Amino acid sequence: MSSPHADVQPVDTRRVDAREKVTGAAVYATDLHPDQLAHAVLATATVGRGRITGLDTAAAEAVPGVLLVLTHLDHLDLQSPGFVMGGGYGVQSLQPLLDEHIAYRGQAVALVVAETLIAATQAAKLVRADYEPEPFAVTLDSPGVERLSQPAVIPLPFLADLDVGDAESAYAAAPVQIDAVYDQPAQHQNPMELIGATVWWRGDTVVVHEGTQNASAIRHGLARQLGIDPANVEVVSPYTGGGFGQKNSLQIHIAPLAVAARRLGRPVKLVVSRTQLFHHTSFRPASRHRIRLGADEHGRMLAALHDVEHQTSRFDLFPMMYTETTARLYGIGDFRGRQTFARMDTQSPGFMRAPFEHPGVFAFESAVDELAYAAQRDPLEFRLANDTTADPVTGEPFSSRHLAQCLRRGAKLFGWSARQWQPASMRADDGSLVGWGVAAGAYPASIVPSAAHLVASADGRIRVGVDGHEMGQGIRSAIALLVAENLGLDVRHVEITVGDTRVATQHLTAGSWGTASTLGAVHAALRELRKQLGADVSGPVDLAAAVGATGREHVESRAETLGPGQTEQDAERARQGLVALAGPEFTGYSTFSWIAHFVEVRVEPTTCRIRVPRVVSVADCGRVASPVTAASQVRGGIVWGIGACLREAGEVDPRYGGWLNASLEEYPVPVNADIGTLDVDFIGEPDLRFHPVGVKGLGEVSMVGVAAAVANAVYHATGVRHRRLPIRIEDVLAGTGLPEPRL
Amino acid sequence: MRPFAYTTAGTAVEAVAALAAAGPGARLLAGGTTLYDLMKLEIETPPAVVDVHRVADLAGFDTSGERELVFGAGARMADVAEDGRLRRDYPALTESLWRAASQQLRNMATLGGNLLQRTRCPYFRGGEPFACNKRRPGSGCAAQEGLDRSHALFGGSDDCIAVYPGDWATALVAFDAEVDVLGPGGARSLPLARLHREPGDTPQLEHTLEPGELITRIRVPVTPAGRGSAYLKIRDRESYAFALVSAAVALTVDGDGRVGECRIAVGGVATRPWRVPAAEQALRGQPVSDASARAAGEAAFAGARPGRHNAFKIELGTRTVADAVRVAAGRAVR
Amino acid sequence: MAATEPVYEVELSCAVNGEPVHVRVDTRESLLDLLRERLGVTGAKKGCDHGQCGACTVHLDGRRVVSCLTPAVQAAGADVTTVEGVAGPDGELHPLQQAFIDHDALQCGYCTPGQIMSGLACLAEGHAGDDDEVREYMSGNLCRCGAYAGIVAAVRAVAEQQGR
After folding, report:
1. What Pfam families is this protein classified in (chain C) (predicted)?
2. B231 within 8 A of B99, measured Cβ to Cβ
3. Does residue A55 carry a pLDDT above 50?
């Protein structure tokens, strides 16, 4: 939105908190070092499952400087926080350190607190536990895994089986069929900021600094665990060093830290080690997808059946919504979705960027590519020919769907028309096999109750205290741009506080609903502010003059907003720190974000190394609230998709349980040299039916479909289809029809 | 980490004396990228450490000699990787350096320390509860029936199949490098090829240095094959990762297009730096061609003993050697 | 050297961002933990503590190192520079810091101090000649948000400024 005044500078769209981040001034939770700070370190279980039969902490306690060793023998008197997806607040319902049972390798058995980090680290290694081991299962194929149909154990409408039409009959009758299984590994979010917290008591109030996406869950969950009033919990999280879903609820170390801080009367800080972190909090569950697709001779898709199983823990059911999105990609009249839990002996899995949509769409969009080739069609044309304007599940329209435009614009930017259809037919000058792949992606648009508080000052500045968390997505920038453009201000005159329970309820920021929800509340608060100032409903406001004219130093406004169709009950759930979301089905329409990805891979013909020199992605996320940070989010999503397709897998040795490759060396996330040119574009059409300023979500959809586009490109380069991620060098080597290794 | 006593040394002679004075189990600390790392994991628990990272008489290197290249054991990997003469005349050596780790680590790590870098086997580094004869002799080898994708095809035993992870030593062994050491008994030299041990039934013993000895220099005989050399490294990502497979090849090409001198070693696949004479023999005297390069690769991996998940490294390694032969031949002076 | 009493703590003198520091350190203490937990210099971040991510990158006598694998005792007499020491005395940003802002070479910001320190070294070493060289020589700094494209653009922009 441009200003009507010609002399006003163009709006500065750069990230508003970048200066703090490039100078080291941004303070993260474990950067704090309050007076009298004590340091905590965890000791963890070494058995895959079992019972502690003996615990010796004497050697640990004897280390000079050790202040406290908390174990289950210390009667921590904590309640379970409840599982965030089971009506509670925690990353899992199981709170370690309460009894002798060990549910998974890596579970905490002691929290050691000392004067120095060195002493605490040394002492934690000296905690000795004896165990009576019990049998355990840790992979989808392990004996002892318990399978449960999701609707049978969680009879909620949005988790039900999906049956549109009669997919089995339509599939059986289809002349062209694909029936394939796609395997995807467990993966770990690995935000660069380690999980950790600094905790202290101020009188009866416990103060928690932790990088989080959900300060309110920490507040209410910790209150429940400690049996105190939530009013006596303050949570402060101005910066989160990457979340990606791992920081979306109350972590299991917070309550023990609060106990330790109370017993010692001192602040306590814990930074969970990277290796421990693989076992300490959530991860993306392994999943297996059987996809059956049928089409007619003209390339029209007739039927789809998507059967999924994914892993969960013995004590929590992490609900899954894979088919919710795959059912919406195309206008397929007959669709069947079935989702099954595989319970095993790990910590509870949870959300990791595009939690269901990335694996589900990898499988589905791989199968669509297979079907396109089976039908002898160009995979782009095949997708365009199966587009739809109505939601095939509900029959209602989408509030906006510009997927075809994403595909067409992306194809043009990429140069798709020069592609040769035949697999293994394109070569680079250096002899590399060239593959071009395409895939679509979608992500449900959700919205949650939100709150905003504006304070306009006579000096022309405005303070925004708002419900939301900054974890790199650029929420401050989106807010600042909205306020600056709305009032005709310089963005530098907008000061924003997020992630702080002292200024607003802090609903979980996840699921790509953050920007839409927060901006809705800010937008409403701006309307209210204009009223208070006697300003017009739109157009620039001379804030200093307008505030000055009221005779006051400050003019405030507040707004609490709800998503379409939400009620006061939802607002109350949000105030209690519980998830309160609406969407993607609303009255009369459904809302999704859409994206198309075009990927070039080059396969070195000798070693079969796969490189990804360029990617083009075009997104439909409604109005682009903050163009600079939005483009960065999409680039990040592409990097995640490349990592998920070619690099990342949590590896499990079934004899030991837990995770074997629990480090940033052995769990290879992409490095700079893995990433080539990333071109990003947006459709930019506001979705005003869904949202007052037209914003849908972006952070997650940006990753959805990337892995399929990469895998489809590998197929195009080599003629071999890979259905298990990650696609590694040995998979391509084995698949290229070259001589078998001599043994 | 366990407490450790700390002393520094200003010269190599001082270091040897300090090491002797520090008592049994004392260790030398140079760049710290292996030892200090493993001390944090309590896989190494020396009671005392002698810091040699500032020993001036170990720090230099000279690549201008007519008979040999001389590298002080304390020279930093990054500095040697930048040496213009070495880049031109021994590209396999500089490539083995700059393709290792990250620039930060190469700024820290020394040439001598890097030779004795310890394995990245996850069962070794993972500590309890994993069985590992190298870490806890007699406890078994979890890798044998486990996730052995990164493990050795050569030089393993029933007690250990952990890979020697270094790149520099893999390149050096192809060049017949010698190692000078200084110890309580004085100075001596040994071929690099005899510095590392195979695990056998004592995988906890990884090298042949006597207690109290310090590596002072690495010497490489000058060879025209240096110009025609290459170090290729295949990893799970494009940088900042250990080798799945690597190959060091150095050769000369005669006037009639046939391979003359020929040196080949492979990394990421063996329990120690692994020279492959059979591959050299297969290539020597042959015309440079895709077929002869492939034959050299096949000869290099002829005796491989794969486990459950690492058989692919035979074909991958064969092709990597062949690629390295082609690159090296392209660089060779004819 | 004669046998002496074992030393488990050392009086360390060094300079951090130009300020003299005198502190008694445990021989086990890493430079990273010294900076963060004792000196309150928290720009360098802990992402792995084992040299596998680069978030703790600082300059030691002008060279980039990972401070997590640098025993603090090895900083004796050295000049340590962290991200806090990069901007000018009156807060004027270094051109690379400004380029990170202009190219949005960051998201969550947690790896950014390490990226800046590594980027400065990459420029000083002469390893910013083209995009691929920057990619290789910046690969010791993981960015989980995936800001790599912006990081390459920022380093290259400053390299070109300096080249002029």
Report:
1. Fer2, Fer2_2
2. yes
3. yes
